[in-house]
Amino acid sequence: MSRISSESSDFLHVFNNIKLMDQISEQHRHL
């Protein structure tokens, strides 16, 4: 059970990083 929650948290971490990178690239595009 803990292994599954750990994998899902890792996935969320990567997903949030991708969203953050998208936001940064969007900001750079608007500059």
TrEMBL record:
It comes from Tetranychus urticae (Two-spotted spider mite). This is Uncharacterized protein.
